[in-house]
Structure to design on (1456 residues):
C-alpha cells in the first residue's frame, strides 16, 4: 500500500498560451505548460462530466485525448480544451464552481483547474490511479479514490498548500464516491469483489466512511455475484445511496443467457444512516439485459434516477420516488390488481411480507409492471459519465466511442442536441474491436458484453464462471486478457490453442450469437493491443524495490518458479498439475497463467480459491508442487510476493 | 355450401379500389370458376381517380351504420382523428407532403365551424363533408413516417373448404383454387399498380419444373431480411376437382402445399419441398436456413377428425437437409423471428387438459431448442381470453408482439391483440391489449355460433406498437388490406371483392435479428462427424424452484420421465387409450435421481415428446407436467426449476447445483409393463396376486383380467379406473370437470396420492399387505393417468398382454 503523507504541488502552470487550433467553431484551445495539443488522430472519448452550478458550462474528461473539454451548455458548443496528464478520469467542482478537480489516472495526480482562467493552476499528488474525486465544500476537503492502493485520500484544501490528512483503506479499486450533504459520510463504490472464488456469497462491497473519524464503517455487501460497481449517487437528503452494478449468477453453468441466467444488472438501494442495503432491483427487461450500468445520478427532488448503460447505448429513467413508496408497501390499486399466475405480484407480496424484498434481486419485471423504469437511447455509442443540470431539466451524456456529449430531456429522454468533443478519426480495427468488446448488443438479448466479465480494459471481474468449453461443474476464475495472446494454450484448461481461436469461438459460446468476421477479428486486434499499466509497486524510476529484487532471486532460484513461469510474460505455454485440481478437473492440469499485473488479478489459482498471493503458497502449496516454497521463511515469502506484485 | 354463402354476400359493397370494378361485378355471377378469375387477373390495371374515390367512399361508408344520420359531431370526430395523427407524426414526417394537408385541415375546420352555425344542413351535405374529412384523414394517415416503402407483397386466397377448423384450414386437400402472389406498387401514392408476380414465371426446379403456378392455391408468403427473396406455399389444389370442397382427408403431392422460392421480382421460381405431406408457413432464419411447418414428423390429432399433426421443421435455403425442429405431439403454426433472433410460433398444447383453449405463443431457438411458453398456456378460465393466438409477429423496436385472437373451430382470423410478455401473466387477460376492441374474441366470447362472423381481422404486419398493416373484412369473408392503428383509424389499401387478400408484407429490406448459433448436432452443418448423437442432456438447477407451493415437508427424490406418443391412428379418440377421454398413449422411460439441493442432470433421448413428474421417496408423483418438451441431438438443455416464475432469474445459490458436478445420470428403466405401457402387464399381476381371490370370495368388485366391452379393456380396469383411478379428461371444456379438469396440477394433489384406490392399499382394507414392488406398480399406473393401453396400435394384442411397441415415437 502506498501512502501519501506529503502533498506536493507538482506543477504550477505559469505559462498559458493560445494557439490557433480550432476544433469546433472559432474557439481557442488553451494549452498548458508541457502538455501538447491532442493530435487529431487521437480518438475522442468523453468519460466523466460535471456541470457548473449555474448550469452554463459542462466540463468533460477525455480519456484517450488526455484532456478536459469545456462546453457551453446553453449554446451546446465546445469552448476550449485543456490538455491534461495521464488518462483523465473523474472530476468534481467546488461549490462556487470556480475550481475544478480532475483525476489524472495513471500519473498519480489531481489537476486543479481555475474555471475562470480555464487553466491548470496546480496539481495534487495522490495514488497512481486516481478514479473519482469529491469536493467537500463546507469542510474544505477533497476525497480521492485510489484504485491502485484501494484507498481514499483525504486532502485538506483549507491550507495554502493542499495537504493529505488521511488515507482510508477501502475494499478494492474504489471507482466512485459521493458525500452526504452534511459531509459527515462518504460512500465509496468498490469496483470489484475481494474474496475467494470458492466463496458462494462472493460480492463487491460498498464502503461507508466516517469522514470526521476518517475511518471505514463495516462495508455493505451487495448481493452475491455483484461486481463492476461503477456508478454511485446519493439522494439529495443524504439518506440513500444508489449503486449500479452487474449481478452475476456465477454458481450456475453458462449454458444459456436468457432470463439473466448468467448476468443481470442491478440498482442497489442503501440506507446510509443504518448502513444497510434496503433492496436490489434489476434494471433489465425480461428478454433484454440492461448491460453494464456505468453511472447514476439523482434528480434534485430525489424522485428520479438516471442511469447510463455503456453496453447497450441506453439511459434508464427510473422513478425512484415511487420505488421507495412500493418498498414501503404503498401499492397503487391498479398495480395491486395485477396477478402473477395465481399469486399476487411481487409488490403486493412485499406489502404483505417485507422479507419478500429479497426476491426483487431475481425479478426481471418488477420495475416494468410498476411502470417505474424506461430506457431511452443515449444518443451515441458507449455512454459512460452522465450529469444533470442543476435544475434537473436536462441530462448530459458522455458517449464514449462516439466522442459526443448528448443533451437529453431528463423527463422524456428526448435528444435535444449533441456536442462533438473534436474530430473523431475513422475507426481503426483496434478502436472498432474495443467498441465491439464493450457492446452488449453483440450478445444474445444483450445479456453482457465482453467487458461485463473483463472490466477495466479487459481485466478481471473477480468472479469464477463455469463455461461449457471444459465441461460442467468446474468453474474457473476469470483471467485477465492482458497479453493473453502471448500466453499459449488459452483458458485455464487450455481448451483453445490460440487467442484468435478463443475470441472467434467465445462469441457463439459465451455470447450466443455469431458476430461478423470483422467484429471477431477486430476484437482480437483490440485484445492484442492491450498492455499492462505502469505498476504502482515499482519505484518511481520503474525499478523493483529492494524486497522485490530479493523476491526475484527467490523466484528464479530457490522457489524454482521460473521453471514454468518463464519468458517475457512468465508463462511456458504448457499445462501443469500444481495440486489444485478442482472437482471435475480430475488431472488437475492447468495452463500456466501469466503473472503480469498479479497485484490486481485476485483471487488466484484456477478456481480463485486463494484470496491473496500469500495464500497461494501458505494454504494451497502444502505439497510443494506449485514451486518450492514450502521451506520459505516468512521474510522470503514476503519478498517473493513483493516481486510478484511488482510484475 | 361455402360457395353459396359467398354469393349471398355478393350484394355487399366490397370494392377493390384499384381494380376491375365493372369486370369483377360481372364475374360475381359466375363466381365458381378459377379459370374465369384467371381472365380477371390479366385485366389488372390502374383505374381512374374518380372510380377509385367512389370505391373508397363506399368502403368508408361501410364502416359506419347506414341507419345513423350524418352529424356535425361525426365530422368533427373525423377531423379530430386527423389532427391527432398530425400531432403523432409531428416532425418525423415529410413536411412538404404534410404542410398542404395541415392547411387543408385548418380550412375544413373553419368550414365546419361555419356549418355548426348554420341552421339547416342537409344530410347529403353532411355526408359529403364527412367523406371529404375522411379522405383528408386518409391522406394524413399515409404520411405516417413508418410507411417508407412503396411496394407491398401479399397473396390472394380463397378460404379453404372442408371443416371450418384451425387444423383443416391448411390441408391442401381442402384448398380452393384461385388467387396468386401479388405486389402492389405506389400503394400510398397516386398511381397504385398491381402486379401478378408469377404471371410469367416458370418453375425451374422440382416436380413442377417447366410449369407455371396457375390454378392452384397460395399460402403464407415470406420475405427474406434483405428483401430479395420470397418464399410461399402453393398447392396445385387438385383435390378441389375431385371433392369440390366436401370434407375429405386425402393426401397426395398434387393436393398438398409445398414450399416455393422466387426472387422479389418473381424470377428464379423453384420448388423447395414436395411429397404428400403439407409444408407451409416458411420463415427465413437470420442464419440463412428456413423454418417451416410440416406434417413430416407424423401423427394425428387426438380429437376431432383425421387430421395429421404439423409442427416446426427446418431446412437449408435450397430445400435440402430437412430436420424436425419440434417433436410436439399436436399442431403448430406460423413461425416468425423475434427481434432477438428466436422463433415464435403458436403451439396447440393439450396434454392431459382442455383441448380447445391453449394455442398460444411459444418460443424456441432457431435450431428448435428449448421450447417455452411465455404467455397463455395454462388458462384458468375459458372466457374473456383468446383461445388461439395466431400469426404472431414481433413488433419492431419493441418487446411486444402482435397476434390474431382466433377461434379453435375456425380460421386464423378474429380480433387483433398486443401481447406484453413483460407483464405478469394472470392466465387470463393481463398480458393482452385489444387493438381492435370492436371485434370480440371469436369462440371464447360469443361461443360457436358467432365464430364465422368474428373472423374479421387477420395476418397483421406490425410497423410499430401503434401501427399495423393487416387484413380486415367487417363481414369476415373476403378480406381487404388495411392500414390500422391502435386509435381505431383504418384506411383501405387494397381489396378484391371476389377473394381475400392476405398476409401483407412491405417488400423491402428489413431488420435482420442476430444469428444465434446452432447448439444441436442435427443439421448437416453442425453434425460434423456425420454420426448423429442420439443423446442430449437435461439439467435442472432446482426442482423446488416453482411458482406453486409444495406440500409441507416435501422431499423430492427423483424425476420420472414419461414419453407421449404421437397418435398413429387417424380416427379421433380411437382407440380409447384409457378412461380419460382423448388421452395420450404414453410410456415410462424411467427415472433419474434428484439431489438433495433439488438439482438433476441426466441423459435424455432425443426426438421424443416427454414430460416430467417429481417423485417422493416412495416413487409417488408429487407434481406432474401437463405439457411436453423434447431435446435434439447434442442438445444441453438447462432448466431453472419446475415451473419456476417465468419472469424471474435464477436466485443466487450458495453452491453449484450438486447434480451438475457429477456425470449425467442415465435414465433407469422402470418396472415391467411401463415401457411399453400396459395395464395388463403392469397392474393386473398385482391384482391377481393380492386381490382377485379375496374379492371373488367376498363377491366384491371383480378384479379379474377378463377382456370385455367395446374398448377392449379388462374387467378389473372397467371396475377400477373410473371410480378409483386418477385421470385428467381431455375435451372441449374439460377444464371445468373438477378433479379431472383444470389446467395445472396442484402439487401433492395428483396421481396415486389423490386416487381413491390408494386408500384401499393398506392393512385396514382386509389386512392387505402389498409388497413394495406391487405397491409401486399401482402407484405408477395411477400416476400415468390410469391408462389401459400403451400405444395406438394393435390393441387386441395389447389386451392379451402382449408387448406391442409403438410404431412412431
Amino acid at each position: 500500500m502506498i501512502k501519501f503523507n506529503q502533498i506536493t504541488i507538482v506543477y504550477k502552470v505559469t505559462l498559458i498560451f493560445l494557439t490557433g487550433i480550432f476544433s469546433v467553431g472559432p474557439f481557442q484551445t488553451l494549452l498548458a505548460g508541457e502538455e501538447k495539443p491532442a493530435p487529431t488522430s487521437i480518438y475522442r472519448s468523453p468519460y466523466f462530466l460535471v456541470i457548473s452550478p449555474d448550469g452554463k458550462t459542462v466540463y468533460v474528461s477525455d480519456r484517450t485525448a488526455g484532456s478536459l473539454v469545456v462546453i457551453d451548455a446553453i449554446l451546446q458548443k465546445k469552448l476550449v480544451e485543456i490538455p491534461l496528464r495521464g488518462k483523465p478520469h473523474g472530476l468534481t467542482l467546488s461549490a462556487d464552481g470556480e475550481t475544478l478537480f480532475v483525476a489524472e489516472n495513471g500519473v498519480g495526480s489531481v489537476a486543479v483547474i481555475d474555471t475562470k482562467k480555464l487553466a491548470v493552476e496546480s496539481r495534487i499528488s495522490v495514488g497512481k490511479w486516481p478514479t473519482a474525486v469529491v469536493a467537500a465544500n463546507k469542510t474544505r476537503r477533497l476525497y480521492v479514490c485510489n484504485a491502485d492502493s484501494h484507498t481514499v485520500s483525504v486532502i485538506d484544501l483549507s491550507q495554502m498548500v493542499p495537504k493529505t490528512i488521511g488515507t482510508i483503506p477501502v475494499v478494492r479499486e474504489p471507482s466512485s464516491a459521493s458525500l452526504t450533504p452534511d459531509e459527515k459520510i462518504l460512500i465509496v463504490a468498490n469496483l470489484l469483489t475481494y474474496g475467494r472464488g470458492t466463496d458462494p456469497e462472493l460480492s463487491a462491497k460498498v464502503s461507508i466512511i466516517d469522514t470526521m473519524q476518517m475511518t471505514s464503517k463495516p462495508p455493505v455487501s451487495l448481493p452475491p455475484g455483484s461486481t463492476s460497481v461503477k456508478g454511485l449517487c446519493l439522494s439529495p437528503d443524504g439518506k440513500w445511496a444508489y449503486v449500479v452494478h452487474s449481478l452475476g449468477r456465477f454458481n450456475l453453468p453458462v449454458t444459456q443467457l436468457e432470463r439473466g441466467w448468467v448476468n443481470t444488472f442491478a440498482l442497489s438501494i442503501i440506507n446510509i444512516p443504518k448502513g444497510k442495503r434496503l433492496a436490489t432491483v434489476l434494471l433489465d427487461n425480461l428478454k433484454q439485459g440492461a448491460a453494464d450500468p456505468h453511472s447514476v445520478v439523482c434528480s434534485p427532488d430525489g424522485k428520479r434516477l438516471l442511469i447510463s448503460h455503456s453496453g447497450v447505448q441506453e439511459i434508464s429513467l427510473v422513478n425512484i420516488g415511487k420505488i421507495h413508496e412500493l418498498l414501503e408497501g404503498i401499492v397503487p390499486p391498479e398495480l395491486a390488481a395485477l396477478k402473477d399466475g395465481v399469486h399476487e405480484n411481487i409488490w403486493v407480496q412485499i406489502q404483505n411480507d417485507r422479507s419478500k424484498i429479497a426476491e426483487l434481486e431475481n425479478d426481471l419485471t418488477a420495475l416494468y409492471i410498476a411502470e417505474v423504469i424506461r430506457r431511452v437511447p443515449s444518443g451515441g455509442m458507449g455512454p459512460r459519465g452522465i450529469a444533470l443540470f442543476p435544475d434537473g431539466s436536462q441530462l448530459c451524456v458522455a458517449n464514449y466511442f462516439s466522442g459526443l456529449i448528448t443533451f437529453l430531456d431528463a423527463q422524456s429522454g428526448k435528444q435535444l442536441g449533441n456536442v462533438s468533443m473534436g474530430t473523431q478519426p475513422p475507426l481503426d480495427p483496434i478502436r472498432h474491436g474495443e467498441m465491439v468488446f464493450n457492446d452488449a448488443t453483440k450478445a444474445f438479448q444483450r445479456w453482457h458484453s465482453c467487458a461485463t466479465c473483463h472490466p477495466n480494459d479487459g481485466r478481471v471481474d473477480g468472479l469464477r464462471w463455469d463455461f461449457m468449453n471444459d465441461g460442467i461443474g468446474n468453474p474457473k476464475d476469470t483471467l485477465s486478457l492482458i497479453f493473453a495472446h502471448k500466453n499459449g494454450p488459452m483458458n485455464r484448461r487450455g481448451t483453445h490453442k490460440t487467442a484468435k481461436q478463443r475470441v472467434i469461438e467465445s462469441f457463439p459460446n459465451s455470447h450466443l450469437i455469431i458476430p461478423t468476421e470483422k467484429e471477431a477479428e477486430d476484437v482480437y486486434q483490440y485484445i492484442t493491443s492491450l498492455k499492462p499499466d505502469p505498476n504502482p509497486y515499482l519505484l518511481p524510476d520503474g525499478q523493483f524495490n529492494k524486497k522485490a529484487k530479493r523476491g526475484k532471486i527467490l523466484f528464479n532460484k530457490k522457489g524454482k518458479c521460473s521453471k514454468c513461469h518463464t519468458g517475457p510474460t512468465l508463462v511456458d505455454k504448457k499445462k501443469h498439475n500444481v495440486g489444485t485440481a478442482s472437482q471435475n478437473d480430475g488431472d488437475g492440469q492447468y495452463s500456466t497463467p501469466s503473472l503480469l499485473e498479479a497485484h490486481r488479478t485476485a483471487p488466484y489459482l484456477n478456481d480463485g480459491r486463494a484470496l491473496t498471493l500469500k495464500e497461494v503458497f501458505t494454504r494451497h502449496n502444502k505439497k510443494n508442487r506449485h514451486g518450492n516454497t514450502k521451506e520459505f521463511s516468512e521474510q522470503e515469502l514476503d519478498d517473493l510476493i513483493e516481486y510478484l506484485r511488482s510484475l | 355450401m361455402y360457395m353459396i354463402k359467398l354469393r349471398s354476400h355478393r350484394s355487399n359493397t366490397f370494392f377493390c379500389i384499384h381494380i376491375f370494378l365493372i369486370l369483377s361485378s360481372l364475374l360475381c355471377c359466375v363466381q365458381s370458376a378459377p379459370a374465369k378469375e384467371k381472365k380477371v387477373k390479366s385485366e389488372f390495371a390502374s383505374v381512374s381517380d374518380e372510380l377509385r374515390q367512389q370505391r373508397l367512399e363506399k368502403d368508408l361508408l361501410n364502416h359506419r351504420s347506414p341507419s345513423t344520420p350524418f352529424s356535425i359531431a361525426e365530422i368533427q370526430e373525423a377531423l379530430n382523428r386527423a389532427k391527432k395523427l398530425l400531432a403523432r407524426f409531428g416532425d418525423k414526417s415529410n413536411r412538404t407532403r404534410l404542410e398542404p394537408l395541415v392547411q387543408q385541415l385548418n380550412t375544413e375546420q373553419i368550414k365546419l365551424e361555419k356549418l355548426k352555425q348554420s341552421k339547416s344542413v342537409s344530410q347529403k351535405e353532411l355526408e359529403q363533408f364527412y367523406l371529404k374529412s375522411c379522405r383528408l384523414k386518409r391522406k394524413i394517415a399515409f404520411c405516417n413516417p413508418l410507411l417508407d416503402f412503396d411496394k407491398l407483397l401479399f397473396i390472394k386466397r380463397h378460404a379453404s373448404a372442408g371443416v371450418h377448423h384451425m387444423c383443416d384450414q391448411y390441408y391442401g386437400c381442402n384448398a380452393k383454387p384461385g388467387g396468386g402472389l401479388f405486389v402492389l406498387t405506389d400503394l400510398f401514392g397516386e398511381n397504385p399498380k398491381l402486379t401478378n408476380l408469377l404471371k410469367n414465371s416458370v418453375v425451374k426446379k422440382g416436380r413442377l419444373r417447366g410449369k407455371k403456378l396457375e390454378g392452384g392455391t397460395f399460402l403464407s408468403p415470406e420475405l427474406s431480411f434483405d428483401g430479395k427473396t420470397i418464399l410461399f406455399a402453393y398447392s396445385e389444389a387438385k383435390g378441389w376437382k375431385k371433392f369440390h370442397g366436401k370434407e375429405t382427408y386425402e393426401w397426395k403431392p398434387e393436393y398438398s402445399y409445398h414450399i416455393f422460392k422466387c426472387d422479389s421480382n418473381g424470377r428464379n421460381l423453384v420448388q423447395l419441398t414436395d411429397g404428400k405431406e403439407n409444408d407451409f408457413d416458411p420463415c427465413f432464419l437470420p442464419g440463412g436456413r428456413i423454418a417451416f411447418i410440416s406434417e413430416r414428423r407424423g401423427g394425428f390429432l387426438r380429437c376431432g377428425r383425421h387430421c395429421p399433426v404439423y409442427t416446426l421443421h427446418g431446412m437449408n435455403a435450397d430445400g435440402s437437409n430437412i430436420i424436425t425442429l419440434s417433436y410436439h405431439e399436436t399442431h403448430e403454426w406460423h413461425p416468425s423471428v423475434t427481434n432477438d433472433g428466436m422463433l415464435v410460433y403458436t403451439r396447440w398444447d393439450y396434454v392431459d387438459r382442455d383441448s380447445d383453449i391453449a394455442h398460444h405463443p411459444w418460443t424456441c431457438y432457431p435450431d428448435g431448442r428449448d421450447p417455452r411458453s411465455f404467455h397463455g398456456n395454462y388458462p384458468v378460465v375459458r372466457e374473456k381470453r383468446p383461445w388461439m393466438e395466431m400469426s404472431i409477429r414481433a413488433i419492431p423496436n419493441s418487446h411486444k408482439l402482435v397476434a390474431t385472437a382466433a377461434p379453435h373451430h375456425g380460421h386464423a382470423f378474429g380480433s387483433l391483440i398486443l401481447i406484453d410478455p413483460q407483464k405478469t401473466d394472470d392466465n387470463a387477460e393481463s398480458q393482452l391489449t385489444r387493438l381492435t376492441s370492436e371485434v370480440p374474441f371469436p369462440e371464447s366470447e360469443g361461443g360457436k355460433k358467432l365464430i364465422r362472423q368474428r373472423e374479421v381481422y387477420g395476418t397483421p404486419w406490425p410497423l410499430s406498437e401503434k401501427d399495423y398493416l393487416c387484413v380486415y373484412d367487417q363481414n369476415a369473408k373476403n378480406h381487404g388490406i388495411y392500414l390500422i392503428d391502435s386509435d381505431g383509424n383504418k384506411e383501405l389499401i387494397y381489396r378484391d371483392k371476389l377473394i381475400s387478400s392476405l398476409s401483407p408484407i412491405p417488400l423491402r429490406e428489413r431488420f435482420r435479428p442476430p444469428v444465434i448459433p446452432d447448439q444441436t448436432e442435427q443439421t448437416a452443418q453442425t453434425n460434423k462427424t456425420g454420426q448423429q448423437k442420439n443423446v442430449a442432456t437435461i439439467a435442472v438447477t432446482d426442482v423446488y424452484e416453482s411458482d406453486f407451493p409444495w406440500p409441507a415437508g416435501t422431499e423430492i427424490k427423483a424425476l420420472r420421465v414419461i414419453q407421449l406418443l404421437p397418435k398413429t391412428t387417424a380416427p379421433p379418440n380411437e382407440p380409447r387409450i384409457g378412461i380419460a377421454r382423448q388421452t395420450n398413449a404414453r410410456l415410462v422411460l424411467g427415472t433419474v435421481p434428484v439431489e438433495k439441493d433439488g438439482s438433476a442432470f441426466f441423459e435424455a433421448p432425443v426426438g421424443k415428446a416427454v414430460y416430467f413428474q417429481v417423485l417422493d421417496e416412495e416413487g409417488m408423483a408429487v407434481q406432474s407436467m401437463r405439457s411436453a418438451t423434447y431435446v435434439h441431438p447434442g442438445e444441453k438443455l438447462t432448466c431453472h426449476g419446475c415451473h419456476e416464475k417465468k419472469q424471474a432469474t435464477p436466485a443466487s445459490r450458495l453452491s453449484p447445483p450438486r447434480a451438475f458436478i457429477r456425470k449425467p445420470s442415465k435414465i433407469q428403466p422402470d418396472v415391467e409393463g411401463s415401457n411399453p405401457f400396459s395395464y395388463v402387464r403392469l397392474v393386473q399381476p398385482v391384482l391377481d396376486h393380492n386381490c382377485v381371490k379375496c374379492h371373488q370370495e367376498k363377491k366384491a368388485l371383480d378384479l379379474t383380467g377378463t377382456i370385455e366391452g367395446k374398448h377392449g379393456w379388462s374387467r378389473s380396469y372397467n371396475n377400477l379406473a373410473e371410480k378409483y383411478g386418477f385421470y385428467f379428461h381431455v375435451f372441449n371444456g374439460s377444464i371445468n370437470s373438477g378433479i379431472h379438469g383444470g389446467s395445472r396440477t396442484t402439487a401433492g394433489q395428483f396421481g396415486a396420492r389423490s386416487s381413491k384406490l390408494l386408500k384401499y392399499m393398506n392393512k385396514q382394507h382386509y389386512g392387505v399387505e402389498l409388497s413394495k414392488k406391487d405397491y409401486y406398480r399401482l402407484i405408477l399406473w395411477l400416476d400415468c393417468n390410469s391408462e389401459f393401453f400403451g400405444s395406438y396400435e394393435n390393441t387386441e394384442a395389447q389386451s392379451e398382454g402382449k408387448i406391442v411397441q409403438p410404431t412412431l415415437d
